[in-house]
């Protein structure tokens, strides 16, 4: 079990996907997402294995929830700066966690 203090250390924010591209040379298909978290944070990049349910046309302009304070991680040829959150469907394919209605980019999940 974890305490509330540990939960508060996880910085989850709302962001809007600005651009989407295929992750070059990926062993498992993935999208490279540039996500705008508002003027205080700016645009961060993420690699997301969400190609089963989401195409580029659907994703651009969509809001997502992402963890922004895990540090950077090299994923293939890109540096991932945040972790987009999702849950597995009945087949184990990722379904995005999204705000139920539009919200300001950069708001912290609480």
What does the radius of gyration come to?
Answer: 14 Å
Question: What's the arrangement of strands in the largest beta sheet?
Answer: 3-2-1-4-7
The total beta strand count reads 9
What is the overall pLDDT average? 95
State the CATH class.
Mainly Beta
Number of helices: 2
The amount of beta strand, in percent, is 35-45%
Structural class computed from helices and strand pairing: mainly beta
CATH homologous superfamily caption: Nucleic acid-binding proteins
Helix content: under 10%
Can you tell me the residue ranges where pLDDT is under 50 for at least 5 consecutive residues?
none
Tell me what the CATH architecture is: Beta Barrel
Q: Give helix and strand order, one letter per element, not per position.
A: HEEEHEEEEEE
What does the main sheet amount to?
A: 5 strands, antiparallel
For this structure, the CATH topology is OB fold (Dihydrolipoamide Acetyltransferase, E2P)
| Gross geometry | globular
Number of domains: 1
Gap from first CA to last CA: 19 Å
